[in-house]
């Protein structure tokens, strides 16, 4: 669903500027939920051509595609942990696909973010 130049975006805002509606609004809603749930020292940027959040390592990312948006949870364990809450979505090992005009519920996104934060913090302790 990205349009514009073929060069990779330099920032999350630039990425989102290239996304057409309604996917842009949908991703902005998901981004706002993630930003509200991550620790203050988290960062966001472009990695692998998509917006990614980092906190003690990669946390999660999001992206727009022609027929869906994706939330890249990046953790098979978290996907399994929330399997019942994700059953209405198309999923893969670490990704949730959702309609371009309907983001997942904010409460679910917050739970996924918190689970990923806990996973990264535990991994950093080792």
What does this structure look like?
The structure is a single chain. This protein has 126 residues and is α+β, with helices and mostly antiparallel strands. It has one domain (12-118): Alpha-Beta Complex (Aspartate Aminotransferase, domain 1), CATH 3.90.1150. The protein is built from 4 helices and 6 strands; from the N terminus they run H-H-E-E-E-E-H-E-E-H. Strands 1-2-3-4-6-5 form a 6-stranded antiparallel β-sheet.
Order of helices and strands: HHEEEEHEEH
Uncertain spans, ≥5 residues at pLDDT below 50? Answer: none
Q: Which assembly state applies to the chains in this document?
A: single chain
- How much is the average pLDDT? 93
| Rg result | 14 Å
Helical percent range? 25-40%
| Physical arrangement of strands within the biggest beta sheet | 1-2-3-4-6-5
- CA-to-CA gap between the ends? 40 Å
Q: Count the helices. How many?
A: 4
Question: How are the secondary structure elements laid out?
Answer:
Layout (H helix, E strand, L loop, with lengths): L11 H6 L5 H15 L5 E5 L2 E5 L3 E8 L2 E5 L3 H6 L8 E2 L3 E4 L7 H20 L1
Antiparallel strand pairs: 1-2, 2-3, 3-4, 4-6, 5-6
